[in-house]
Sequence to fold (368 residues):
Amino acid sequence: MIELGTELRWQDPICTIPMERVLLSEKVGYDAVFTAEGYGNEGIVPLSYIAARTERLKLGTRIMEVTGRPPVLAGMAYQTLNHVSGGNRVIAGLGSGSPQATEGFHGRKWGGAVPRMRDYVTILRQVFAGQDIDHQGSQWAAPYRGPGHMGIPAAPIGLQPMGDIPICIGASYPRMVELAAEIGDGWMPPGFAPGMMETYRPLLQRGFDKAGNGKGFDTFKIWSHVDVIVDDDVREAMRPYKEYVVTWSGMQRANMEARGYTELADQLADIMGNVTPADAEARVQQGLNLLPDPLWQQALDTVPDEYIDDGWLVGPVERIRKRVDPWLNCGLTGLIVRYGPQLGSAPVMENLDVFVAIAEAAGKEPVS
Fold:
């Protein structure tokens, strides 16, 4: 049976934790809750708060940015959370983040994502295993062995391992997807829709083959998300997701092509001109549309309704209940249900009935 999770918003100017939804999700059979980080709140602190209020939900990051913390510090945070939550509840979801976060916030040069992730996971596994921290990589290294080093010996962090902490890697580009399969316990695609798995299956298999030891899909976790909005007006509910598609079209081309919408990607690229992902992120933070009218409306009109309807869940609760089945049977091992549009800084009022409907459609049993 597919696992279900929910995810907290991370981009709001005031951090709030929707405990009513989190507690309801645990009651109706959801398996996990995830946090994210980019700009706005970070990911571990909210999970600590949730750990104190829940009993069995897995606690995951989707994703923690690997340029924002040294890997040993990240490992300490995850292992600390593992201890205070009783063990075997933590999922370490990692990602490369963005140029804005990496250079603007973390003060590190963008680039080198694949070797950086390999170094990061190598060190993180040493932390989780209680081993001496000893890795000299091209992007991350410990102990320090550069000019003027003091010869500090390798040592463990001191916290004892308490159960397994799986590492899942957020990845969309081919080399990183392959790496996720090679060195990770799971993959977190940032954009996914039913029907896309066949595009990524060969990349994942190449990673499994590099890992060896019989690694394959039977033990590999794949967590992706679906955004939902409950609204009697289906077309109105689609609009914020069309805005999302247009704003991030430069980063979503591979997803569009995997879904058979290469022409849409080309049309949006023509309309966008020279707008870069960094430009898009900066304007989102300012609460601005990516383009002036009438180009903005032209771009929105370019996105077909069916593209939204197949990649999101919108409309009345019963419509969503009927349309969730493809998501439950598309090759994912875990589906994360997020509510509302992710653009903008104003969360919308959540309809909690839809979380119950999706749990019922997935065959989840309420927990007494």
